[in-house]
Amino acid sequence: MFTRFSRLWLLPILFSFSTVFLLLVQVDPSFARDLRVGVIDIQKAVSGTKEWKKEFLSFKTNFNREKKHIAKKEEQLKKMVENLNRQGMVLNPELKRKKEEEVLKKKREFERYVQDKNEELAKKEKAITSRILKKMADVIAKIGKEKNFTMILEKKVGLYFDNSVDLTALAIQAYNKI
Q1: What is the CATH number of the domain that holds 121?
Q2: Residue in 140, 121, 150 with CA at minimum distance from that of residue 56
Q3: What distance in Å separates the CA atoms of residue 176 and residue 144, rounded to the nearest whole number?
Q4: The dihedral formed by the CA atoms of 53, 57, 59 and 62, expressed in degrees to the nearest 10
Q5: Alpha-carbon gap, residue 55 to 67, rounded angstroms
Q6: How far is the C-alpha of 108 from the C-alpha of 115, rounded, in Å?
Q7: CA neighbours within 13 Å on the CB side: how many for 177?
Q8: How far apart are CA 82 and CA 51, in angstroms?
Q9: Which residues have C-beta within 8 Å of that of residue 110, sequence separation ≥ 6?
Q10: Is 47 exposed, middle or buried (0-12, 13-18, 19+ CB in 10 A)?
Q11: Is residue 26 one of the residues assigned to a domain?
């Protein structure tokens, strides 16, 4: 459609137009004077609250109790397999097959139990975290309004922040007062 000559002629005009447009559209730096940005390490803020520590201690106790129970069941299953291996040579084939099926059934039940408990514990942890996180978001919004921040960002978003804009400790204190 365009000839080679018109393409060469159009390129400098487009470049000139773009340059002039960008120079005229520059933002006045005075707009940014009232901008106040705070940062928060949300993970540290949530895990630093008294409520999280109390809930996590309870969760950890239940987790360790369940871990011991699973280890006990696993040991019983190992003993069943060892007994089957020892008796396998002397048992008649029909009885051996029934015991193998029983052991396989117990093993599947154990695996399902472990999987169910893992899912259950993960759901509990997620529920605890989301409940506290929702409250923390309200606290952060309140701090932002009280201290006249334009925005509060997650600390992981930026590469560098001055420590004076870090609101993590303030958020933990405000949360614990609720």
Answers
A1: 3.30.910.20
A2: 121
A3: 17
A4: 180
A5: 18
A6: 10
A7: 8
A8: 46
A9: 73, 74, 77
A10: middle
A11: no
- Cα separation, 84 vs 96, whole angstroms: 8
Per-residue pLDDT of the chain (178 residues; tens, 9 = 90+): 455 555 556 656 766 666 656 666 665 555 555 788 899 999 999 999 999 999 999 989 999 999 999 999 999 989 988 888 888 777 788 888 888 898 899 999 999 999 999 999 899 989 999 999 999 999 999 999 999 888 898 888 878 888 888 999 999 999 999 8
**How long is the chain?**
178
Number of H helices, E strands in the chain: 5, 2
- Asked if residue 52 is part of any domain, the answer here is yes
Tokens of 1: 């459609």
Q: Would you say residue 2 lies in a domain?
A: no
The predicted model scores a pTM of 0.65
The string over 92-122, giving b where at least 16 C-beta atoms fall within 10 Å of a residue's C-beta and e elsewhere, is eeeeeeebeeebeeeeeeeeeeeeeeeeeee
Tally the domains of the chain.
1
φ/ψ (deg, to 5) at 16: -65, -45
